[in-house]
Amino acid sequence: MKLKSHRAPLYEALLAYRDSRQRSFHVPGHKNGQVYRALLQKEENAYADGQAAKHNESHLGKEPLEQSQLHIVEGEQLAAGERQESLQDNTLREEKDQEEQSQPNIVPTRAFLEMMRLDVTEISGTDDLHHPEGVIMEAQQLAADCYGAEESFFLVGGSTAGNLSLLLTVCDEPGSIVLVQRNVHKSVIHGLMLAGAKAVFLEPWVDPTSGLAVMPSVKTVQAAVQAYPEAKGLLVTLPNYYGMGADLTPIARICHEAGMPLLVDEAHGAHYGQHPELPASALSCGADGVVQSTHKMLSAFTMGAMLHVQGTRINRSLLRQRLAMVQSSSPSYPVMASLDLARRLLHVQGAQTFTAGLAAVSIFKRGLAELPRFRLLQPAALLQQELSAEVEPADQTAHASAAQPEQMHGQSAAELGHAAAGYTAQDPFKAVIYDGLGILSGYGLQQQLEARGCIPEMSDEQYVVLLFSLGSTEEDAQHVLLALQDISSAFAVEGDLLSPEESGEHMRGEKHYISTWNNFQEKATYYSEPIPFSLQPIREEHTIVIPINECAGRRSAEMVIPYPPGIPLVYPGEHISPTILARIQLLRDEGAKFHGVTDASLQTMKVMKNE
Ligand SMILES: Cc1ncc(COP(=O)(O)O)c(C=O)c1O
After folding, report:
1. 67-75 vs 80-101: helix axis angle to the nearest 10?
2. Computed from CA positions of residues 312, 316, 317, 319, in that sequence, does the dihedral angle turn out positive or negative?
3. Taking the CA atoms of the chain, what radius of gyration do you get in angstroms?
4. ∠262-265-270 over CA atoms, to 5°?
5. Three-state SS at 262
6. How far, in Å, from the CA of 159 to the mean position of ligand 1?
7. pLDDT digits 0-9 by tens, 224-237
8. DSSP assigned state of 351
9. From the CA of 569, how far away is ligand 1's center (Å)?
10. I need a labelling partner for 214 at 20 to 30 A (CA). Which of 72, 130, 182, 228 fits?
11. Distance CA 278, CA 339 (A)
């Protein structure tokens, strides 16, 4: 069958259903919005009657007196003090009257009612997500074609549903060992719990310049795969929330040589590979199963996501069964149709889909370059390239020394060389900015931006992530630039930009030292022991709180998450090695904050009682 990329079969089926005006004797109970349309009709009739009555009265010369006029007439007969009290009484009375008289508005807007016409269920012609044979099958085939998969599955529960079902597929028996990047979304942890799997956690690679964690390095993957050849697969997250990443191809190769599938949580990269300026997609790098939140960086409704698979390493019939387990048997058709439409937009327009969005990004970046106060996170190589491109040829020698890595965020050449290995790609749509003066934290900058009508995607202690997309406009870029300009003036510092010491740039280094894993990778193992996950909660009576310096060798009963970067150092059930313990204590003493622990001061920890 020839695929017709300009068609949106599922969306079209919904329109056809709406236009057929068939009578519904099936769910949903709102009957395509009929329940509200009947009320709306009643309201409109009442309004029309009221208007007609008003018209008649005015024609008879009896203009009805407004409630407020009545109060003024009464008030005029009272002394000034009494009038005040009377006005208050009247206001209260008015409010009470209004409460009793006015009907709360219980009818949704017409736009919402129009949407309800498309909210159908599995009936003749609309297919079945869990046994697709008609329009859903066609829509999914078109999606596979568009994203370069062998088979694509629509998800109505976000990437969450994709991660759960992938893990439940590869971990096909209790106690299955699976290699997992340590810093993952909670849906991955929940998948491990549901599957009763044992996770070998791989340390993420940490960019020394920013202190932000990306996926594990090739070296780490190699070591873990060699140590656990029986593992059922490797799961990594790429890109991270900040849009940072690196080439997945060597990691896919290592997995495949060991006969393992590579699963990629590409929740933030549904647009990858679709434009020359965007990083390569996980599928094109060889991943076997890829989860994408189409609602995050493309144009689907919230909860709309896709799972793409290729090759034979993932058992597809088991995957279908797992998808049916974790997804509703009444999936939302508007969400699925929005996936069909998001795919069609991309399929028909190709790379051009991103032209306007990328233009907005480029306006923003050019404008930001004129506001040296605010800086942009970029891979070191790209930063160097841009710095070199900025100077006149005659100045190049001088500039080359000016752009010495040592002077970029106080990082050594060796560190930046290392940086090039794990952070080589940045999603251009994620503009990660920070205050170069170190005055505003990421949270503070977010607050200031919000006060000026710009709502960022997220912030941490240092950075703010501004998420652009194919839907962003030049006006968006201009607006945020104006906001930043205004913030810059409102939080100005006398004189020029401060020296690194004054500006807190050196603090960035220090903060990163405590919040990242810079020395950690050299000293410690790259991967954990297998940590068992299950649905059984840890029972309080099996735990004990002890002084932290007695914790080495014990199994933790809580998660220890230094923040930032928010990577769990220890999962419940994991042995606390002396190295990890030293790391926790160091971070604590340096002032890091911790999530997940019972005692935030980390003088004590909750551990499992000795068996
Ligand atoms: C890395 C990552 N994976 C998975 C998810 C879950 O995606 P969804 O919200 O589409 O279920 C998120 C959500 O933010 C995420 O950041």
Report:
1. 160
2. positive
3. 30
4. 115
5. strand
6. 5
7. 999 999 999 999 99
8. G
9. 21
10. 228
11. 21
Atom of ligand 1 nearest to the CA of 184: 1
The whole-number pLDDT of residue 387 equals 57
Structure tokens at 394: 């005659």
In this prediction the pTM is 0.84
- Which ligand 1 atom is nearest residue 237's CA? 1
Side chain identity, residue 251: I
- Average pLDDT, integer, range 7-16: 97
Q: Which of 148, 243, 283 has the alpha carbon at shortest distance from 469?
A: 243
Burial of residue 445, with CB atoms counted within 10 A of its CB: 0-12 exposed, 13-18 middle, 19 or more buried: buried
Better pLDDT: 101 or 116: 116
Tell which atom from ligand 1 comes closest to the C-alpha of 305.
10
Distance 229 CA to ligand 1 centre (A): 28
Query: Has residue 142 got a pLDDT over 60?
Result: yes
CA 346 → CA 72, 293, 300, 530, 604, distances in Å?
Answer: 63, 15, 12, 41, 53
Q: How far is the CA of 191 from the centre of ligand 1 (A)?
A: 13
Percentage of the residues of the chain whose pLDDT score is greater than 70: 80
Alpha-carbon separation of residue 258 from 32, 228, 407, 464, 525 (angstroms) = 52, 10, 42, 39, 21
Condensed to tens digits (0 to 9), the pLDDT of residues 289-311 reads 999 999 999 999 999 999 999 99
Give the contacts of 509 (CB within 8 A, at least 6 positions apart): 409, 410, 411
C-beta atoms surrounding 259 within 10 Å: 11
At residue 394, the pLDDT reads: 39
Which residue's C-alpha comes closest to atom 9 of ligand 1? 158
From 154, 180, 185, 212, the mutation candidate for ligand 1 (largest count of ligand atoms within 8 A of CB) is 185
Task: Please measure the distance between the N-terminal and C-terminal CA atoms of the chain and give it in whole angstroms.
Answer: 62
Rounded to an integer, the average pLDDT of 541-565 is 92
- Burial pattern 391-428, b for ≥16 Cβ within 10 A else e, equals eeeeeeeebeeebebeebbbbeeebbebbeebbbbbbb
**Average model confidence (pLDDT) for the chain?**
85
Atom of ligand 1 nearest to the CA of 157: 11
Q: Which two tokens stand for residue 363?
A: 């306006």
SS3 of 152, please?
Answer: strand
Is the pLDDT at 99 greater than 60? The verdict is no
**What is the whole-number distance in angstroms between the Cα of residue 295 and the centre of ligand 1?**
10
CA of 94 to the centre of ligand 1 (A): 49
> Does residue 374 sit in helix, strand or coil?
strand
- For residue 5, the tally of other CB atoms under 10 A from its CB is 14
Ligand 1 interacting residues, C-beta cut-off 6 A: 158-160, 163, 185, 187, 237, 241, 265, 267, 293, 305
Ligand 1: centre distance to CA 484 (Å): 29
Tokens standing for residue 306? 């896709």
What lies within 8 Å, CB to CB, of 464 at 6+ separation is: 432, 433, 434, 442, 445, 446, 449, 456, 458
Atom of ligand 1 nearest to the CA of 296: 10
- Determine the Cα–Cα distance for residues 202 and 220; give it in Å rounded to an integer: 7
